[in-house]
Amino acid sequence: MATDVNVPTLGESITEATVGQWLKSPGDVVAQDEPIVSLETDKVAVEVNAPVAGTLAEQLAKEGDTVAVGALIARIGEGGATAATPAAPVAAKPEPQAEVAGAPVNPAGPAETPRPREDADPAPAHDAALTLSPAVRRAVLANHVDPSAIKGSGKDGRITKDDVLAAATAKTAAPATAPAPTPAPAATEPVARPAPTGERREERVKMTRMRQTIATRLKEAQNTAALLTTFNDVDMTAVIDARAKYKDLFEKKHGIRLGFMGFFVKAVALAAKDVPSVNARIEGDEIVYHDYLDVSVAVSAPKGLVVPVVRDADRMSFAEIEKAIAAYGKKAKDGALTAEDMKGGTFTISNGGVFGSLLSTPIINPPQSAVLGMHRIEERPVVRDGQVVARPMMYLALSYDHRLVDGREAVTFLVRVKEAIEDPTRLLIDL
Hints:
The protein is of the alpha+beta class and about 425 residues long. The chain folds into 3 domains: about 1-80, CATH 2.40.50.100; about 125-175, Dihydrolipoamide Transferase, CATH 4.10.320; about 230-430, Chloramphenicol Acetyltransferase. About 25% of the residues lie in helices and about 25% in strands. The protein has helices at about 125-130, 135-145, 160-175, 210-225, 235-255, 260-275, 320-335, 405-420, 425-430; strands at about 5, 15-20, 30, 35-40, 45-50, 55-60, 65-70, 70-75, 100, 105, 225-235, 280-285, 285-290, 295, 300, 305, 310, 345-350, 370-385, 385-400. Strands 11-20-19-18-14-17 form a 6-stranded mixed beta sheet. A 4-stranded antiparallel beta sheet has the order 1-8-6-3, with no helix packed on it. A 4-stranded antiparallel beta sheet has the order 5-4-2-7, with no helix packed on it. Strand 15 and strand 16 form a beta hairpin. It is globular, with a radius of gyration of 28 Å.
């Protein structure tokens, strides 16, 4: 008797999803609670697990199809790993080279679908690694690498795009076995050059549901809000010195590294007390002010930029902030973020500096009214006490909705952040 697999509840206000990738094919053995398909919603990718152990009998939706919550998308039949019978004993132990992808090969036996050995894992990591997402498949084809030779760093050993790029880089860097060099032609002998092929390629790839939502929301912000950006720069000397002095003690006590983001979250919380409009939102013809700070921290995920929310950040310690951000970063890399993780948020911090950005004008995340952009740190000449000296400087950008936040308030807010970073003692005495 087959068991139905339906689209689960995906979160508040989410009524449908897109089938992103089938992780199992018809006929594959699946264990109970093993992921069989990945669904893409407006906010996150959600894996649907098998409700029972057995064999995937049918896929009732194709990759790219839109499916509603509760819709039937697959059926799981009886059988599987528990139904497999032991293989007949053989006279000699097979040589190691007779195994491919973890499945024993019997050259003398009839051609049939290999059954898992009794001592084999029900879901080998190698099989999971070769279940490639569309982005990974494109990267494999573009870089001409063998996916079976790549060790995946993703969830359940799956291969990520970064794994493919790293393998391609290693392949390029490795010295290739080249034939013996031919003598160089004489100076007067013309050198033959390969004729250009003139081949030009195009590839059309459907936008993921998450990318479509990102595009819609960003364009909505531009069309609705009166966006303006103000800039400042900040001397990072004091923060860098504090980290260097206390990082070992901090990590030993709290089990987490002391990063820059903790300082900036605390600085934003301090500045928002002086300029509450930056931490507010417009709702109809009313302004909603918050007596709390829920910071959306922009995190790069395999399928796009996501913004999980650190809630009540104004009441958290440095260690609590750093732990929350590190946990979200790991969940984003593993594709395990939920819609609840990204729900809400009253202010956003985006750190383009980790990618080398010198300056940018970030776009607000509606219905929020402001976003702080951090950038890379580099030594620049500045004047201190009449002397030109080198200091580690960072440009800060505050984009805000001018309908709600006046220019004076935006500049004041950014100056408060600058003052707190350049003199972290202000964070301790609430000044």
